[in-house]
Design a protein that fits this description.
The complex is a heterotetramer, with 2 copies of chain A (422 residues) and 2 copies of chain B (185 residues). Chain A has 422 residues and is an alpha/beta fold. Helix content of chain A is 37%, strand content 12%. Chain A is built from 13 helices and 12 strands. Chain A has a 7-stranded mixed β-sheet with strand order 2-8-7-6-5-3-4, with helices on both faces. In chain A, strands 9-10-12 form a 3-stranded antiparallel β-sheet. In chain A, α6 links the parallel β5 and β6. The C terminus of chain A is likely disordered. Chain B is of the alpha+beta class and 185 residues long. Chain B is globular, with a radius of gyration of 16 Å. Chain B starts with 7 loop residues before the first helix and ends with a helix. The chains are: A alpha/beta (422), B alpha+beta (185). Chains in contact: A-B, A-C, A-D, B-C, C-D. Chains B and C meet through α7 of B and α2 of C. The complex binds pyridoxal-5'-phosphate (2 copies) and FE2/S2 (inorganic) cluster (2 copies). The site of one FE2/S2 (inorganic) cluster (FES) has 10 residues of chain D, from α2 and α5.
């Protein structure tokens, strides 16, 4: 059976060049960069070379790069770091409703610790209105965080414009560039940001490594305490192989930024066109301001996990929403924020292309998708022509409502019921 | 079976579901939304002499929802209405060779929809509605083994629950949001 | 030139078997374990296999293992996690004075956030007295944290005995087993601990991966927010290759726990005997309750970095104190707690053996060590026979004292001035 | 040179230090402790006609301390006492081909010990003591380039300083603990 991996927004394979470099720093040059002897010096030099590579990709100085264990830690460090460092004078944070859970759940945590959070709406294409940012800023605002490229629907936000507003207001701006880094140009200067999160495993580097850009002079409280690594911003023996892998991945991404995404956009548009030729389908996310590898389509009357399961049976890897929310029970918060009904949101399928995706891969997926949608629709009680149930028949579920008030606020549903491996 | 995986039987019923469809002149029709996830199932019953002569379903839901819908129709076809109501979500899961702990709640959909269909039939025949199906209350609290310990320790937030929260409506574990979606389903 | 790495307490090379397994999960089976498709399932299964391996090494259930980015994160999560989860009723924590900075600096952070911390003394061999623990516990104590094997001097603490006391008092016990795991038997049941930190790169696994044992039912607040990974205790895409590496390393360590350390102890004793044959040297740490790979010796009148540098020139990697404090200006807090004078502490050299260390390696190091110590002593103004300066001559340094009061409390001096790579 | 590495010249002076030793009938002896790290240096001067005829040192300290001790003795041998006091820690570092930013403080040891030795000589000859050697105050504040920015931004805690804190005694940057060790040295 053909196997087609269209879930590159969830994670990517590590490139050979990257893996080879990492292997050396695991088995041969395995030193601890804090050590003063030659093993330590070699590890330290490699780490600084990686820092320079990452700095080049982001358009910043090497001294402004702090290595992390990934995108989630980067988002947490940026948001909690600024929030707690400035909490005596500022207790307000502004984020969009379509941020990754690493941002949203950090904000929920902060709400429980004396902070106020404004969650900005988006339009039907998933765009944040910079004017909304301007209006939301108060004298007690310390930080605005709006992601660069959305992980579910691929919409690219107007960060530079938002940055002009935050600069003027003297408020820090963080952007989560986990999905955009290596796919579209990023530059912290041009984007007017003070903090930027990237993650290696989304750009053909290893899981467990990432970086946070911290503009020089930005005050942050560290999350993790211990040795004075990473200029005291991130204690813990540095993950040298991971950092080396991130560095090589960043260098390759930077060098190839012109070629790869162009061909990818063509393939993506072929995929989107094919999916939209299925009746009652709609594209989610902005039609043009969009990451080059992202296709996200909702199909009326069918449910996401069943589509994924059926695709999996024919060797195709896709997801609903993000990798994270694809295993959650709740419909995607991104799609709901964009105004989709819960059932439209539940019926979305995200396919994300990678460096090695071919036209044949796309055509194979399209040949399988139509029959799957038809089969599931034939089974759906929501599809047209199905006999409508009477009001009374929904009573059983209505009865459950009475218990709702007892509930805790539901947390992240990742790894929740809906996600199951077969 | 790894607790994270669907059994072959589940996949068989997902890929080749039995009794999919509608019964235009059904004696009872029940539709429910799953309070946990908002997925929806509808069951059609043809009842004659207190016995289920025919049964069909339609399901908008996950793989487990489709598989449990399929197998419950196989199980209850030919049963008396009374016996059918004894079929619990646990029976359904067992018949599928087990469900991952996190998908146990999906099996409620089938038992609930069956009850709703029977009640529809009873209302039409001037009978009173019946409450929870047998075993529903007792068996629905389908957390994994970790929960026993959680209880000992006074429900700490760090241990695994089904989706991190109790999903038993009796225990007040249904997110309002979800219930609302389901109700509007 | 012969090269001899005697800094295995700082970090270890990744074993071939471990690297090979990791490579597969980077390049081939690279899926995100949260994904529902087959790539995700394979990654998820591998992760759970690792969890089982780690559980076997620690003597716990797989569901009690949470993967982290390393020892520092494990220590932070254990201590802050318990402290914040129980802060409404308990605000007191007890640790030893010789904990790793990952514990001590976390405690300092907590002191700034309304917690009280008791720092237990140790005796001249570095041992904590369990009776001191008993006496320090108050009704407001939530946690005791005492490390298993000390990273600098190798002393092994009486954890099981301390655990009996904490159990009786209803207080949680955390132990940092980063140095002992894989070297001496560890078992969370027998040791009566509720939380235990381990780190992969100290036992021939990769940097950037570790695990925290959390006894079922222990309440903890997570450090990092986002997706619901690791039972909501640790958000972020799991470092699958790192976790796989940790799992393989744990399995190998468990299987070899009988053989390796035995031979290692013999070599270590040969090394210690040789070092102590140098005049005016003393062994630091307990003579028998000691990690099998650790030798720590102080040489009168000479300073640590200069010894390391001289050793480095002949191809030998060693450290003063920990990898972390070897680049710090302050003398080892461990040695100071054990009652050494500042200059004795500054003159300590730690050599830590590994799986592949040979008798020839040890003899080579011993052959170089004597001349180095003699050369540096000949240069030292503190050595016997040197002309003593008069009181007045120290005035220049005394003059600096007047500025001392302005100071911030000095933080961790890791990566500080003393550590320099040449 | 990478800012983290010792130059070959430093390593040469560390491995083959010049003028190690003592002068039993020295005209001036100065010993200082480095207020930052507690390391100790002692300098012996033989002075004749206002000129340094001979100089020797002993140092308990890091590689940079030994190398700066060694090179300063080379530099001042033959100089007038006045010229010798013009030799700053920065001159010493430059003569070694540079020191890593984090090791700049080590070069203070040599300049301070020289001053102490000269003052010892002056006291013996009924002269008044001299304060800081030339360039000491101005040059000792040897942070790396990051510090300029730190100042702009109001000294945020996140940016690199020499060991995370100011090490210039004039700026109040010396840990008391260290200074005490040094004083007791
Ligand atoms: C937009 C975005 N932010 C943050 C993350 C979290 O990064 P990581 O998986 O490295 O923890 C992800 C991916 O999971 C993402 O897509
Ligand atoms: C005893 C001890 N605890 C904690 C740590 C920190 O672990 P890691 O290096 O994985 O952050 C170390 C090593 O650095 C250690 O030796
Ligand atoms: S997730 Fe809704 S029924 Fe399974
Ligand atoms: S560290 Fe003390 S003089 Fe260099």
């Amino acid at each position: 059976m053909r196997r087609v991996y269209l879930d590159h927004a969830a994670t990517t394979p590590v490139r050979e060049e990257v893996a080879r470099a990492m292997l050396n720093f695991m088995v041969e040059d395995f030193g601890n960069p804090s050590s003063v002897h030659s093993w330590g010096r070699v590890a330290h030099e490699a780490m600084e070379q990686s820092r320079a590579n990452v700095a080049r990709l982001l358009g910043c100085r090497p001294t402004e790069v702090v290595f992390t264990s990934g995108g989630t830690e980067g988002d947490n460090l940026a948001i909690m770091g600024v929030a707690f460092a400035r909490k005596d004078s500022h207790n307000h944070i502004i984020v969009s409703q379509i941020e990754h859970h690493a941002v949203l759940h950090t904000c929920e945590y902060l709400e429980g610790h004396g902070f106020e959070v404004t969650y900005l709406p988006v339009d039907g294409d998933g765009l944040v209105d910079p004017d909304d940012v301007r209006r939301a800023i108060t004298p007690r605002t310390s930080l605005v965080s709006v992601m660069h490229g959305n992980n579910e629907v691929g919409t690219v936000e107007p960060i530079a414009e938002i940055g002009r507003i935050t600069r003027e207001a003297g408020v820090y701006l963080h952007t989560d560039a986990v999905q955009s880094a290596g796919k579209i140009p990023i530059n912290v200067q041009e984007m007017n940001v003070d903090l930027m999160t990237v993650s290696a495993h989304k750009m053909y580097g290893p899981k467990g490594a990432g970086a946070l850009y911290i503009r020089r002079g930005t005050r942050l409280q560290p999350l993790q305490h211990g040795g004075g690594h990473e200029r005291k911003m991130r204690a813990g023996t540095e993950n040298v192989p991971g950092i080396v892998g991130l560095g090589v991945a960043a260098a390759l991404a930077y060098d190839e930024l012109d070629e790869i995404p162009r061909g990818m956009t063509v393939l993506r548009d072929r995929l989107i066109a094919g999916l939209l030729s299925i009746p009652r389908s709609r594209l989610n996310g902005h039609p043009s301001r969009r990451l080059p590898h992202n296709a996200n389509v909702s199909f009326g009357d069918i449910e996401g996990e069943s589509v994924l399961l059926a695709l999996d049976m024919v060797g195709v890897a896709a997801s609903t929403g993000s990798a994270c929310t694809s295993s959650a029970l709740t419909p995607s918060h991104v799609l709901v924020a964009m105004g989709l009904s819960h059932q439209e949101a539940q019926a979305s399928v995200r396919m994300t292309l990678g460096r090695v995706t071919t036209a044949e891969d796309v055509d194979y997926v399209l040949s399988r998708m139509g029959p799957i949608v038809r089969r599931l629709r034939a089974m759906s009680p929501l599809a047209e022509g199905s006999l409508a149930p009477r009001e009374a028949e929904t009573a059983a579920s209505g009865a459950h409502l009475q218990h709702a008030a007892d509930l805790d606020k539901p947390g992240c549903d990742c790894s929740g019921d809906k996600g199951v491996r077969r | 079976m790894s607790k994270e995986l669907y059994t072959d039987k589940v996949m068989d019923h997902f890929m080749n579901p039995r009794n999919v469809g509608e019964i235009p002149d059904a004696d009872g029709v029940g539709q429910v939304g799953n309070p946990v996830c908002g997925d929806v199932m509808r069951i059609y019953l043809k009842i004659d002499g207190g016995r289920i002569q025919d049964v069909k379903f339609k399901t908008f839901g996950c793989g487990a929802a489709i598989a449990t819908s399929s197998i419950i129709t196989e199980m209850v076809k030919g049963m008396t209405v009374g016996d059918a109501l004894e079929v619990s979500n646990r029976h359904v899961a067992d018949a599928l060779g087990g469900l991952p702990p996190r998908k146990m709640h999906c099996s409620n959909l089938a038992a609930d929809a069956l009850l709703a269909a029977v009640n529809d039939y009873r209302v039409k025949h001037g009978l009173s509605q019946i409450g929870e199906p047998a075993g529903h209350g007792a068996h629905q609290h389908e957390h994994d083994a970790a929960d026993a310990d959680d209880a000992e320790a006074g429900r700490p937030p760090c241990t695994l629950r089904v989706d991190g929260k109790c999903v038993d409506p009796q225990a007040g574990g249904v997110p309002a949001r979800k219930a609302r979606i389901a109700g509007g389903g």
